[in-house]
C-alpha cells in the first residue's frame, strides 16, 4: 500500500454507541451490495480476509484469505501469524492474500526456461509494438503526415511509411549507398536542393529553374522530366507510386535530389 497508495480506497466504518445495532445492519447491507456488484463481473477478483486470535496465550494468531470471482471460491490459504496483536494479524491477512498469489505466479513463471536465441525481443520492441498501431492511424491523417510527404506503396500494395526497424524504408536503406538513401529521403519529404524548396525558404537568390530550362523545378517535374532524367529500366518516366520504382529512378539518375556542391545554409 505504500507503493500504490493512489490505487487503494478505504471504506471506513464509523459506528456510534447510540444505535450500534442499526448502524451495523446498514453497514452489512452496504457491504453485501458492494460484494454483489463486484461478483457480477466474472473477470473481477476479490479477496476476503480474517484472522483468528485466541484469547489464550498458548496459541498463535492465524491469518486466512479466500479469493473469489463471480461468487465462486477460486483459492484459499491460511498462515501462522505468530504471537501478534489483532491489528497486526489483520494486516498480515491482507498482505498474505496478495503475496500468496504473487508467489504462485512467480513459481509459474520461473518454471519456464527459454534460451536467448539469435535475436530475442527487447524492451524497445515491446514499446514500438504498443505505439506502432496508434502511430499508423495518425500517419493516415494529412494534417499529421504533412502535405509534402510523397505517398508510396510497397511491392505488395501496402502503404509505405517510416516506422520501426522492420519497415520497408530500412530495407531500401540496407540495399543502398548512404548517398542514395539520403536522396530518397529528400525526395519523399520534399526537403531537397530543388527550385521549389529554394523559393519556399527564400534561398539560392530565387533561382528556381530546372537544368532542362523549365522555370519552375519541383519534385514532380524532376520525376517526370524526360529531357534531364532517365526512367528505370523497362519503365516509362512517371510519378512514382512505389518505393521500388523511386529507388530504381534514383539509381538511374545520381544527380536527382543531390547537391551539386556544398549545401546552402539552411538546406540539408
Task: Tell me what you see in this structure.
With 268 residues, this protein is an alpha+beta fold. It folds into two domains: 17-105, no CATH class; 143-252, no CATH class. 40% of the residues lie in helices and 12% in strands. The chain is built from nine helices and five strands. The strands form two sheets. Strands 1-2-3 form a three-stranded antiparallel beta sheet. A two-stranded antiparallel sheet has the order 4-5. Helix 6 packs across helix 9 (243-252). The model has no long low-confidence stretch (mean pLDDT 80).
Physical arrangement of strands within the biggest beta sheet? 1-2-3
Helix share of residues?
A: 25-40%
Q: What is the N-to-C succession of helices and strands? A: HEEEHHHEEHHHHH
Fraction in beta strands? 5-15%
Straight-line N-to-C gap: 54 Å
Q: What keyword list fits this structure?
A:
single chain, alpha+beta, 268 residues, two-stranded antiparallel ribbon, 9 helices, 2 domains, 12% strand, three-stranded antiparallel sheet
Summarize the structure.
This protein has helices at about 20-40, 85-110, 125-140, 140-145, 170-175, 180-190, 195-200, 220-225, 245-250; strands at about 45-50, 60-70, 70-80, 150-155, 160. It has about 270 residues and is of the alpha+beta class.
List the helices and strands and how they pair.
Blueprint lengths: L19 H20 L5 E8 L8 E9 L2 E11 L3 H25 L12 H17 L2 H4 L6 E2 L5 E2 L7 H7 L3 H12 L5 H6 L18 H6 L18 H10 L16
Antiparallel strand pairs: 1-2, 2-3, 4-5
